[in-house]
Amino acid sequence: MAVKTAAPTSELMQDLKAFHHYLQAERGMAKNTLLAYGRDLERFARWATDGGVKSYLQPTVHELSQYLSFLHEEQLAAPSSARHLVALKMFYRFLRLEERVQQNTVELLSAPSLWERIPQVLSPVNVDKLLAAPRADDRFYLRDQALLETLYATGSRASEVVGLKLADMYLDGGFCKVLGKGSKQRIVPLGAPAVAALKAYLRDLRPKLVQTNTPPNPPLAKGGPGGVPEVFVSRGGKPLTREMLWMLVKKYVRRAGLNAKVSPHTLRHSFATHLLAGGADLRTVQELLGHANICTTQHYTHVDPSRLQAIHRKFHPRG
């Protein structure tokens, strides 16, 4: 008999919370659908934590088949069981998008051909439209411009960008340190436009935003004015959250007249694809993205077949 535990792990709960936000903000799902998916995944979380899987990030075929048996034992109606499986597949699809699971983990749930989806990628022209969307008369123009430039220049995840610290920025050297999955740090170059945008924001706007957090005659704070170490802050001078970042990107996506499905992760996909299209080495792109497994990076070679065609023409004797 499986050993009972008190509650789902905090890591699993954080992933479920992020998934709920993804469905709400990115997929625009109705409230009732969100509630149904939430209930279904709470059932999975309890089952997983009660010993159903050794690691929810690495489920085995046997463990997943046991979950199907568990749903049957719960005497759920067939449509309800089917909905549970749909919710679970979407959750693992999200985990793959977030690079929390390996590709083969998702394939355990269904044939990849049923839902394999090439990440949406913006053309360089549309990237330029998005980066130009903040206007000089916007109240937080300097911050938002620096934010978008940083997302595209580094190809970082939304959580990594909002987690950037002032101490991570080496603007005179043209690079920053990014803290990625598993607390692994990597060095990522910043292009000239991103450096210029960041310098203007840090010089002219950020000090004003963090003033609200600064008490009278404060001691010298390690994180700068207000003691806030994060680079990107809200109008109240507090660290910008991932949810706030997503909302800002969506705002400028609408203003630029781009596909509503474009998200912060789209800029990451675009970053990788544009580098590969320009002839960058796959291993280099892997390092810049912070992928633990190059198989994840290879996914982008399917997005841009022109790169493979160019390599074939250049190196094949009859190309």
How would you describe the overall organization of this protein?
The chain folds into 2 domains: 10-114, Tyrosine recombinase, N-terminal domain (DNA polymerase, domain 1, Orthogonal Bundle), CATH 1.10.150; 129-260, hpI Integrase, Chain A. The longest helix has 22 residues, at 31-52. The chain is globular, with a radius of gyration of 22 Å. The protein starts with 9 loop residues before the first helix and ends with a helix. It is mainly alpha-helical. It has a 3-stranded antiparallel sheet, with no helix packed on it. α1 runs antiparallel to α2 (31-52), α6 (124-131) packs across α11 (242-256) and α7 (141-154) runs antiparallel to α9 (192-204). The protein is 56% helix and 4% strand.
How are the secondary structure elements laid out?
Layout: H1 10-25, H2 31-52, H3 61-73, H4 78-97, H5 103-107, H6 124-131, H7 141-154, H8 158-162, E1 169-170, E2 175-179, E3 185-189, H9 192-204, H10 206-209, H11 242-256, H12 264-277, H13 282-289, H14 294-303, H15 305-315
Antiparallel strand pairs: 1-2, 2-3
Structural class call reads mainly alpha
Which topology of the largest domain does CATH recognise?
hpI Integrase, Chain A
| Order of helix and strand elements from N to C terminus | HHHHHHHHEEEHHHHHHH
Globally, the shape reads globular
Strands side by side in the biggest sheet: 1-2-3
Q: Strand percentage, roughly? A: under 5%
What's the CATH H-level homologous superfamily of the largest domain? Intergrase catalytic core
The first-level CATH class name of the largest domain: Mainly Alpha
For the record, the count of structural domains works out to 2
Could you tell me the radius of gyration in angstroms? 22 Å
How many helices does DSSP assign? 15
Mean pLDDT: 81
CATH architecture group name of the largest domain: Orthogonal Bundle
Helicity, in percent? Answer: 55-70%
* Major sheet summary line: 3 strands, antiparallel
Name the poorly predicted regions: 1-6, 110-118
Compute the separation of the termini in Å.
61 Å
Total E-strand runs: 3
